Amino acid sequence: MLEIARLALRYPDFAACYDLTVPAGALCAVIGPSGGGKTTLLHAIAGFERPSAGRLHFNGQDLLPLAPAARPISILFQDHNLFPHLTAAENVGLGLKPSLRLDAGERERVAAALAEVNLTEFASRRPAELSGGQRQRVALARALLRGKPLMLLDEPFGALDPGLRREMIARVDALRRSHGLTALMTLHTPEEAADTADLFAFVANGRVEAAGPWDRLTAKDGSESVRRFLGL
Ligand SMILES: Nc1ncnc2c1ncn2[C@@H]1O[C@H](COP(=O)(O)OP(=O)(O)OP(=O)(O)O)[C@@H](O)[C@H]1O
């Protein structure tokens, strides 16, 4: 379980204080208006930003004292950060060893991760020879290979067409289930995750203003701010 309580951060023009609980193994879609603090929340969990106060625990472990690299977290951004001079397989292999000196077992794990995202036959292509969706699948394979139990996805598929975006959300959903991951994903198109996310966190004005399953938040007697945001 991910437990966030009174987690406070401040930028010169923005103050945030988050409360959110995500059950272990759940997919939480983080939605809300632009500038509301969705990315800041993910950055605080990842350790890229230092909260001034509050509590951040994952499966009973206090994450706040840990450096970003020591946290049990893998991250997928819209800008997938693939190296242009390396093949898909090498980019995935970086998730295991930055030196890329992989032994036979590690090479097998890379091949298995590529197979999980249906990219086996693209293993030796470079990013420029792949579509946007395929590049994001390479990044997803690399993130999976790291074997971290908490996955943060910051608008990872925003640049893809709506159909492909839905396909990728479904793929993330299937993979996090089979790997038993807890996942938080920011989204600008919340309805696309209505069928997949276990819960939605509506972030606005630096706060989680509402959290819960889609049907409950969007019901007539659900969250007024969510309904206004969605134009319901
Ligand atoms: N490094 C920073 N320094 C100062 N202010 C920042 C920094 N990062 C974000 N902010 C401010 O914090 C606020 C929240 O930004 P954040 O990126 O978390 O919003 P968001 O909900 O993810 O928005 P979007 O949907 O547009 O991506 C914004 O007002 C932004 O300008």
TrEMBL record:
<dbReference type="GO" id="GO:0005524">
    <property type="term" value="F:ATP binding"/>
</dbReference>
<dbReference type="Pfam" id="PF00005">
    <property type="entry name" value="ABC_tran"/>
</dbReference>
<keyword id="KW-0472">Membrane</keyword>
<dbReference type="InterPro" id="IPR027417">
    <property type="entry name" value="P-loop_NTPase"/>
</dbReference>
<keyword id="KW-1278">Translocase</keyword>
<keyword id="KW-0813">Transport</keyword>
<dbReference type="InterPro" id="IPR003593">
    <property type="entry name" value="AAA+_ATPase"/>
</dbReference>
<dbReference type="InterPro" id="IPR050093">
    <property type="entry name" value="ABC_SmlMolc_Importer"/>
</dbReference>
<keyword id="KW-0067">ATP-binding</keyword>
<keyword id="KW-0997">Cell inner membrane</keyword>
<keyword id="KW-0547">Nucleotide-binding</keyword>
<keyword id="KW-1003">Cell membrane</keyword>
<feature type="domain" description="ABC transporter">
    <location>
        <begin position="2"/>
        <end position="230"/>
    </location>
</feature>
<dbReference type="InterPro" id="IPR003439">
    <property type="entry name" value="ABC_transporter-like_ATP-bd"/>
</dbReference>
<protein>
    <submittedName>
        <fullName>ATP-binding cassette domain-containing protein</fullName>
    </submittedName>
</protein>
<dbReference type="InterPro" id="IPR017871">
    <property type="entry name" value="ABC_transporter-like_CS"/>
</dbReference>
<comment type="similarity">
    <text>Belongs to the ABC transporter superfamily.</text>
</comment>
